Amino acid sequence: MNIIDILNQIEKIYPNPVTELYYETPFQLLIAVVLSAQTTDKQVNKVTKNQGLFQKLKSPQDVIDMGYEALKENIKTIGLYKSKAKNIYNLSKQIISIKDVSSNEERYLFDRFGYIIPDSLNEITKLDGVGEKTGKVVLSVLYNKPVVPVDTHVHRVLNRLGIVCTKTELQTSAQIEKIIPDDLKNKAHHLLILFGRYFCKSKNPKCYKCVFKEFCKYYNLKK
Ligand code: SF4
Predict the structure, then answer these.
(1) Ligand 1 centre from 44 Cα, in Å?
(2) Ligand 1 pocket, 210 CB below 6 A?
């Protein structure tokens, strides 16, 4: 089964896949993704939505107005909260200082929200706390760029299925981006995350009802 057939099968289980992170503004999306590193989306949403953090933080200026100490206090239930607070505070300052608009998408954002989230991997990863994976998630969700961010779930699924044979998430991302057609990359990212998060889980994957059993490398090795 090729990757397109695999994605089609997964889409039958998870139609209309979207990010599970809560956000209303582009800046909030960036913050939610930064917060989600090594933490579940559920835990992030608890803080940003249920505890009302995003009621207070809609733009980078809101972060500066809140201040580093208060921000730290607000996110203390999230793993690595001290370094995340520092990064969010610093990247807010960086975003406020960006004045050059280099694309129509950035122009739209600036006119509508008064700030720019860079729309290239090279630029977005210059922000504090934004590595390649975080940058790709934002570029994919916000700008529909043809990238495939790979987290632990996507990495596991693709290796188990034998689509890639890689050691790191970055290697998987580089390989899978060559295989998946550009117009499917955005959807593929969400489908593979959902499949890994809820179906092909790290422990106790639901192999007993999986349509990929016949050719799944992991399943057939375990038999
Ligand atoms: S057979 Fe099991 S390990 Fe393989 S893809 Fe399906 S759920 Fe994952």
Answers:
(1) 28
(2) yes
100 pLDDT tier (thresholds 50, 70, 90): confident
Is any ligand 1 atom within 6 A of the Cβ of residue 163?
no
Contacts for 89-94: CB closer than 8 Å, 24+ residues apart: 89/63, 89/64, 90/128, 90/129, 91/30, 91/34, 91/60, 91/127, 91/128, 91/129, 91/130, 92/60, 92/61, 92/63, 92/64, 93/60, 93/64, 94/126, 94/127, 94/128
Task: Please indicate whether residue 200, judged by its CB atom, sits closer than 6 Å to ligand 1.
Answer: yes
- Distance from Cα 54 to the centre of ligand 1, integer Å: 37
Q: What is the CATH number of domain 3-16+147-222?
A: 1.10.1670.10
Give yes or no: 133 in active site. yes
CATH of 26-131, one of 1.10.340.30, 3.30.1330.50, 3.40.50.12780, 3.30.420.40: 1.10.340.30
pLDDT average, residue stretch 81-98:
97
> What tens digit of pLDDT does each residue of 46-86 get?
999 999 999 999 999 999 999 999 999 999 999 999 999 99
Our answer on whether the CB atom of 109 is closer than 6 Å to any ligand 1 atom is no
